[in-house]
């Protein structure tokens, strides 16, 4: 049995993944804003530090896998704070605990929305600027019209996917024998997407933006099984992959870019 840390464990994909790993007989340390073994707010620097301190204490100083699932999809700056900085802080902060494992694994949850055209200013700030700059740009987009604020989510996820690709082959991850990858789901039935599912107009609008020819929108368990495999001992060679589990959105939207 292995010890897994799952952020966003109280709901949706994180909850489903925690349940699956528990069924498989593993120890899951769940963290979230509420209803979790460790309650920590990933939108703040102090919450991120608290997460690392508490996981270190509760785990006794070693974990086998980190699954950074927590995220927001609101069109505001908090989404950047959680989806990018919270995820990076989770992975970097818990990395020392993975070094104690004989087969450490790490995975983040990006999104097919990373394929949408980003706000270049925010993207550059996230990847090569300071957190202060990026959060200022996110606040500008949040204050703009609906079209501008809607760029926040996809841009934060694109930055996260790029961060994974940059980091995975480096000394910190690959040289330490830690496969670091991401999954990028299409539309999954969770509380995050409930507003889409309960409104026919929103549903057809999203369906037009997110082509999913293979089996359409789906349940979180579909993502959970992939996350469980990516963080299992069986996955020893995937490095920096962004795995689109999206019913074909990536294949349709990016077609020949392989
Ligand atoms: P969800 O809202 O059901 O679960 C997200 C969890 O993250 C919640 O329990 C929430 O409390 C937690 N969280 C939010 N802000 C936090 C914070 N500041 N600190 C700690 N925890 C926080 O949503 P979900 O659909 O399960 O989303 C999980 C991940 O999957 C997210 O990263 C999301 O962007 C991504 N994703 C979801 C879909 C989808 O269609 N549902 C598609 C692509 C990607």
Order of helices and strands: EHEEHEHEHHHHEHHHEH
Bound molecules: nicotinamide-adenine-dinucleotide
Mean model confidence by pLDDT: 97
The gyration radius over C-alpha positions equals 17 Å
Task: Write the CATH architecture name.
Answer: 3-Layer(aba) Sandwich
Which strand-content bin applies to the residues?
5-15%
- Count of the domains: 1
Biggest beta sheet attributes = 7 strands, parallel
Indicate the overall shape: globular
Any idea of the CATH class? Alpha Beta
- Uncertain spans: none
Spatial separation of the terminal alpha carbons: 37 Å
Determine the fraction of residues in helical runs and give it as a percent range: 40-55%
Number of helices: 11
How many DSSP-defined strands? 7
Q: What structural class do you assign from the helix and strand content?
A: alpha/beta
What would you say this structure looks like, in words?
The chain is of the alpha/beta class. The protein has a single domain (3-247), classed as Rossmann fold (3-Layer(aba) Sandwich). 47% of the residues lie in helices and 12% in strands. The protein has helices at 12-23, 45-59, 77-98, 120-128, 131-143, 146-149, 151-167, 194-197, 200-209, 221-230, 249-254, and strands at 3-7, 27-32, 38-39, 65-68, 105-109, 180-185, 242-245. A 7-stranded parallel β-sheet has the order 3-2-1-4-5-6-7, sandwiched between helices. Helix 3 (77-98) links the parallel strand 4 and strand 5. The chain is globular. It starts with a strand and ends with a helix. The model has no long low-confidence stretch (mean pLDDT 97). Nicotinamide-adenine-dinucleotide binds next to helix 1 and helix 3.
């Amino acid at each position: 049995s292995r010890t897994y840390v799952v952020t966003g464990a109280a709901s949706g994909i994180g909850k489903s993944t925690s349940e699956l790993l528990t069924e498989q007989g593993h120890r899951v340390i769940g963290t979230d804003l509420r209803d979790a073994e460790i309650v920590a707010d990933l939108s703040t620097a102090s919450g991120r530090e608290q997460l690392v301190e508490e996981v270190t204490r509760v785990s006794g100083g070693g974990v086998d896998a980190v699954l950074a699932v927590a995220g927001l999809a609101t069109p505001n700056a908090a989404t950047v704070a959680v989806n990018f900085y919270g995820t990076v802080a989770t992975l970097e902060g818990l990395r020392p605990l993975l070094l104690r494992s004989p087969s450490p694994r790490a995975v983040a949850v990006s999104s097919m929305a990373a394929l949408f055209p980003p706000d270049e200013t925010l993207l550059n700030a996230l990847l090569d600027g300071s957190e202060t700059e990026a959060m200022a740009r996110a606040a500008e987009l949040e204050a703009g019209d609906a079209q501008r604020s809607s760029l926040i989510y996809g841009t934060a996820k694109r930055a996260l996917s790029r961060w994974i690709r940059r980091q995975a082959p480096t000394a910190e991850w690959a040289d330490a024998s830690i496969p670091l990858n991401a999954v990028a789901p299409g539309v999954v039935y969770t509380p995050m997407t409930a507003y889409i599912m309960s409104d026919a107009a929103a549903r057809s609008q999203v369906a037009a933006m997110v082509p999913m020819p293979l089996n359409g929108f789906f349940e979180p368990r579909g993502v959970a099984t992939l996350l469980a495999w990516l963080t299992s001992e069986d996955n020893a060679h995937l490095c920096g992959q962004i795995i689109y589990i999206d019913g074909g959105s990536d294949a349709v939207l990016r077609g020949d870019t392989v």
